[in-house]
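User: Could you write out the 3D structure of this protein bound to thiamine diphosphate? I've included everything you need below.
Assistant: Certainly. Input first, then the structure.
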Amino acid sequence: MAEVTLVEAVNLALVRAMEDDPDVVVLGEDVGINGGVFRATVGLQARFGPERVLDTPLAELLISGLCVGMAAQGLKPVGEIQFMGFLYPCIDQLVNHASRIRNRTQGRLTCPMVLRTPHGAGIRAPEHHSESTEAMLAHIPGLRVVIPSSPERAYGLLLAAIRDPDPVVFLEPTRIYRAAKGEVEDNGEALPLDVAFILREGRDITLISWGAMLKETMAAAEALAAEGIAAEVIDLATLKPYDEVTVLGSIAKTGRCVIVHEATRTGGFGAEIAALIAERGLTSLLAPVARVTGYDTVIPMARLEQKFMPSVGRIVAAARKACQFN
Amino acid sequence: MADGGLPVIARFEVRHRNYLAPDGSINRPLPAFASDASLLASLYRAMVLLRNFDRKAVALQRTGRLGTYAVSLGQEAVSVGIASAMREEDVLLPSYRDNGALIWRGVKLEEILLFWGGDERGNHFSGPVQDFPFCVPVGSQAPHAAGVAYAFKLRKQPRVAVCMFGDGATSKGDVYEAMNFAGVHKLPVVFVATNNQWAISVPLRLQTASETLAQKAIAAGFIGEQVDGSDVVAVRAAAEDAIAAARDGQGPRFIEALTYRLGDHTTSDDASRYRPEEEVQARWKEEPIARLRAFLARQKIWSKADEEQLAAECHERVEAAVERYLAAGPREAETMFDHLYADLPEVYVAQRRQLAGEGDG
Ligand SMILES: Cc1ncc(C[n+]2csc(CCOP(=O)(O)OP(=O)(O)O)c2C)c(N)n1
């Protein structure tokens, strides 16, 4: 089995999906000869031709809208938006069309599309390249929002997303595109959507995160272990619809919870999880649910970016405090 | 060389097509299909049915039995003319005002009433199964049309996507983005702008400084033409040509159908607040139904008796549809979860049960 980076795993999944299914079409800006600005689509056009791997004009609304039209014809378009900051023109198509065409036509038309985009801060990118607005997408009924946190899950979840009969927004954590390496068996096997992954078991506290922040979250769990605190770490992986059962099951076991996301705090997806636990896990709770998040600011440019991001230290401190609460 | 010695590197033209004058006389030789009297009669019948249907729908809305409704009054020739040039296997991507096109393509009147009556079952209609439902966010269906046409091209299917929208929609980037892409890939798609001069209260001159809407196609690299949208023969002829060219691999076309919205924007609108009555009265003299009737009468292929019979048929058909619409049973609340996803994710099953009155909430 080969060690690959997360972005290489994305590429493997795309190749596999296109090999398996002639209806899979990849489209976006620079995805063809250039192989995508992050090289996620490298080699695809040479292999599958410019009709199935097409460089679109520079028009994000168009990319998402084309996907809807193609998908309604039974193609399985995989659109790429170069950075999440440029996804916003697609919101109209996602909210008004992709996510509800099945529902509003009572199943007559469907939308098996995937929209991929790099997600998140921490790469010293220019302005508007470091967005973590997944909560906005997770609010949309009828959509799936998926964020992998490792090459293995990038491969398996992207295959699942492409095969899924409904629209999926697939957010790829830019910060660990190349930093995350792992063995991926290119066996065409998908991982389940809508299911959270328990990355580490523990009795004392539950740490919940997704995407690139799992790197700091796992490091925090290590540090806590050295202090004798056994943290359970959950990779939520699918944010819409999310795996309430795994979350509540873990809280029932540990009684304590810290939610970690780099997205700004107010209305972030952590708030949703905290509310779920308040509604359905309160009697298990031994301490208030804590959130370690980005601040309610615009994600700053490179010089202050690291100050914005949750650090291992902040996560450890929040977990320690939760464990000391009684 | 033009003035000052600067070379002119390109010239463009926008043609305008018209056959029938407002009084039903002929301006120039008619297209081949116009020798088919029964086809002309069926275009006429479809327009009259639409006007009857609109009248009834407004009455239903006024009496609280239908939601907001958008009438086609004055514009009947556009949706009927366009749809009549399509083949069954083509795909229509209509705007919310294109009832006439849906009806031509086999959507039942009661289904359209269901839609405007606030029931998604109306969108599961009896028309061609791949046709899109009415698009409410203005212009956002144009990229879908390009996507549909791309699928046709990729699969080498001789099919055409026909996308309809209003003049207001042409101000949106969506429409230009779709046209631009369709031009690049020579897609089999026909864009139709129904230029009824108004986008709710905003007149065309505040929508664009462009002399025609048709010329917007030039920027996207294909032919745009204007057609007299109150002349159903012209609309159908333009649509036939454009659809045939698209099917033949010649790429997209754009048709600007010049017409006039004689009624309010919707049943929630009062056009007298922004539009002088004299303007509307003047435009009544050009409306498409009287125009075609005058032509048919001149040709002696339509009689007073035909007219009376048609009126009775329309009345009967519309009333029967209304009855079926009103008799459509209510939907169970929990069905709002149906078709949300292919399979309802487990986490939403409890919410569904709650709606069904089985949950604890
Ligand atoms: C994107 C969007 N913005 C605003 C509206 C509200 N709205 C509904 S119809 C309309 C005017 C549209 O005019 P036009 O495109 O000319 O079509 P017409 O109604 O004249 O057929 C507006 C502003 C909408 N439905 N969608």
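The pocket of thiamine diphosphate is lined by residues B 97, 136-138, 165-169, 194, 196, 198-200, 261, 265 (CB under 6 Å).
User: Perfect, thank you.
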